Amino acid sequence: MSWQSYIDQSLLGTGQVAKAAIHGLDGSAWATSNGFKVTADQVLKIVNAFNSGTLAEFYTSGLFIGDEADNKFKFLRQNENSLYVKKGEGGACIFKTKQCLIFGIYTEGMQAGNCNNVVEKLGDYLIGSGY
Fold first, then answer.
1. Which of 3, 39, 61, 107 gives 90 a disulfide partner, CB atoms 3.0 to 4.6 angstroms apart?
2. What tens digit of pLDDT does each residue of 55-101 get?
3. How far is CA 79 from the centre of its chain?
4. Given strand 100-106, what is the order of strands in its sheet?
5. Is 10 helix (H, G, I), strand (E, B) or coil?
6. Contacts of 77 (CB under 8 A, 6+ apart)
7. pLDDT per residue over 3-29, tens digit each?
8. By the 8 A CB rule, do 18 and 90 touch?
């Protein structure tokens, strides 16, 4: 399956994710949904925070995802592989595998838990496949 197929079928195709992207841990874009662009700097900031265990800065500064003017998300919590953020009635789950970050954005009318489950299921699958 191509990386774009993971975006189109495994994430957007569920109806639980409005926008999605998969980026390598070096910041390179592997696949993205139309109109959604996560910058390499945003990816690297998240990867560095995961690797150093210093996610606390996101509590005060928030987290910027995408290139839209209003792209600041409020940091909620994290676990070993996931970050959870919120913006208005929407939010995101960001999952870190051995080789990539998976971004799943949900919007008003979507359930955060459903989006999180979809993103984390794909992340677990990719980890199990060596990614």
1. 107
2. 778 888 899 998 876 789 999 998 889 999 999 999 999 999 999 99
3. 13
4. 29-32, 19-24, 100-106, 90-96, 82-87, 72-78, 63-64
5. helix
6. 83, 84
7. 999 999 999 999 999 999 999 999 999
8. yes
